[in-house]
Amino acid sequence: MTPTLQTPQPARHPNPTTKARSLAFLRFERPNGADTERFLTDFGLPFAGRSGEASFYRAADAAAYCYRVDVGRRARFVGLGFEVASRRELAALTQLPGASGIEPLEGPGGGAVVRLTDPSGFQVEAVCGREPATVLPHRAPLPLNLDAPTRINATQRLPESPPEVLRLGHVVLEVADYQATCAWYTQHFGLIPSDVQVLPDGSPAVTFLRLDLGATPADHHTLALAQGVMPTYSHSAYEVVDADAVGMGQRILRERGYTHAWGIGRHILGSQVFDYWKDPFGAKHEHYCDGDLFTSEVPMGVHTVSREAMAQWGPRMPASFTRPPLSPATLARILGHVRSSPDLSLSKLRTLATLFG
Question: What end-to-end distance do the CA atoms of the chain give, in Å?
């Protein structure tokens, strides 16, 4: 029996303020820049420049950077940036409550930015006019001897080095105020739901949102929102060239002493071959390849949520993947959101704990 969504969101907005063209970058604060740079280099994101206390890292594509790290007293995720088409779209976003004006964008590539805050408190930067960088060289996908063999009198030998990250793919956030947050992204950046996993009461547990690029294929999701107990970063994902790059990434990161989070496996929704690792501050980063691409006309799918529904094959998703580290401060935040959020209740808290705890 196909489950039914019982809430207004996720849903497409008929007339969004803008339509984001890409996920431009992510922003983090870290107290130790050296540990961060070491991890990102080992992960496959080379250093791209520095401006004051901000460091920038890039993938192989033409984006001048996709990852910004600012020096901070504690490790935290700050927010995300979306590329929009023009300054006219930036000007439309300046009319939103709490928005900045149009300002110069700091960092490699320059450009212009409008700064916003979503209903869950994450900083969102809308940018345009960034100068492209030189595309970095990377190896081609390895030829595979399948039904029609192409690799004759030759062997498969990968370089024993960090995989080359092709681009920033997506970010997943947990939010307490799900309805308001999802509506904000669909209304102001034109994101459209590809698939939603629902709880037994028909409310969303996880929604995968893609860019509306019309007839141009877009990733199955650029932003995913999960019903959580407080606003927090879940993970970010970075595309590599093939499954062998995913596997070599696992070998390199394991040999260099980092903490594995989950993988290798293949997702059901999105179909990516995935592998997750934690940076020195516990933030999860995913290598992936072979994700689904959808054009705008594909309708939303509705599915029952479960831990088993997260992967077609590979190890079962561990409980630690979604369980927040508990402390008195965290428990106080959770209880505060249960009291204040229209999307949370003690009953839903118990359901989430049963499904993912």
Answer: 25
Q: What is the CA radius of gyration of the chain?
A: 20
pLDDT at 345: 86
SS3 state at 299: coil
CATH code for position 243: 3.10.180.10
Task: Round to whole Å and give the CA distance between 271 and 198.
Answer: 19
Residue 346 token pair:
């003690």
> Does residue 3 fall inside a structural domain?
no
> Could you say which DSSP state residue 162 is in?
-
On the 0-12 / 13-18 / 19+ scale of CB atoms within 10 A, 260 is: middle
Query: Is residue 143, in this structure, part of any structural domain at all?
Result: no
Contact (CB, 8 A) for 56 and 40: no
pLDDT of res. 295: 98
15: buried, middle or exposed (CB in 10 Å: 19+, 13-18, 0-12)? exposed
> How confident is the model at residue 250, as a pLDDT?
98
- β-strand 293-294 against 218-219: which pairing, if any? antiparallel
In a domain, 209, yes or no: yes
Domain span at residue 38 reads 22-132+162-356
Residue 333 within any structural domain of the chain: yes
Given a contact cutoff of 8 angstroms between Cβ atoms, the answer to whether 225 and 211 are in contact is no
Instruction: Judge contact between 189 and 23, C-beta under 8 A.
Output: no
Element containing residue 197 per DSSP (H, E): strand 192-198
Task: Answer yes or no: is pLDDT of 326 > 70.
Answer: no
Residue of 309, 268, 261, 310 lying closest to 287 (CA atoms):
261
